Amino acid sequence: MGLIKRFLKLTTYGGLASAGTFFYTTRNDIFVAMPPTDPIFQSAAHRKLNPSQNPTTHDLCIRKVPLSDINPTLLEKKGKLAEAFCAGVWSGWGYAIQRAILAQKYQGPETATHLWEPSELKSSTYDVGTLITDHFEVIEKTPERIVVRCGDSPRNQGIRESDGLFEMSAVVKPEDGVAEFALKSCFFQGQGTAEGQPMPPHIVWLHKQYTKLWAETAIRNVFRQ
């Protein structure tokens, strides 16, 4: 979570955008409630990585885009839209500062098989097993969604003190004339028994602002040229 706080400080004081501009630009990124029956809570990954079923900090951010604004080549084959949205998350400038911080600390011979460069992150199809900047690992992929494990280095495959699942999805809804993009997060303490949620309220708020930034920069990778 320190990366989120550091990023937002750099954003605020570095002049990337004023607060007013940020909230206006992300006004269409809407958070909706996640019911207890949400598939991420019932997934095999969540059951395995959170064996004590500790409390979670979770959220779901939705961004709808008219189909007329989408690059038509991404609609020709199922799965291409979700891949492009995912690639936009990791290669976009919304992730640039965190990517640079992680690269400075962890890029080297031991992580040479991970995706680090923006060009790699933009061109990847994010198949299961893809490793991203020593912090994310793709553990599930369908034509509409890609799920990564987060919270620690993928080199740590065991039960972690801090863990999480992050899902990027793209669903075409021709009856509504839109594509619905979503970022879903689920964080938890994997080891032992937790007495409360893994994030305090102010970090939850910061995380949501970061999520909106990722959503808004990621969709730029799916727009019609």
List keywords for this structure.
34% helix; 225 residues; 7-stranded antiparallel beta sheet
3D architecture notes:
The protein is of the alpha+beta class and 225 residues long. It has one domain (2-221). It is 34% helix and 22% strand. The protein contains eight helices and seven strands, in the order ααβααβαααβββββα. The protein has a seven-stranded antiparallel β-sheet with strand order 1-2-7-6-5-4-3. Helix 5 (80-91) crosses helix 8 (201-218). It is globular and about 50 Å long. 35% of the residues are buried.
Indicate the topology:
Elements (H helix, E strand, L loop, with lengths): L1 H13 L4 H7 L4 E3 L6 H4 L1 H6 L6 E11 L13 H12 L4 H11 L11 H6 L7 E2 L3 E6 L3 E6 L12 E11 L4 E11 L12 H18 L7
Antiparallel strand pairs: 1-2, 2-7, 3-4, 4-5, 5-6, 6-7
Summarize the structure.
The chain has 225 residues and is of the alpha+beta class.
Order of helices and strands: HHEHHEHHHEEEEEH
Helix fraction bin: 25-40%
The gross shape turns out to be globular
DSSP summary: helix tally: 8
**Helix-and-strand structural type:** alpha+beta
Mean pLDDT: 92
Oligomerization state: single chain
Beta-strand segment tally = 7
Strand order of the largest sheet: 1-2-7-6-5-4-3
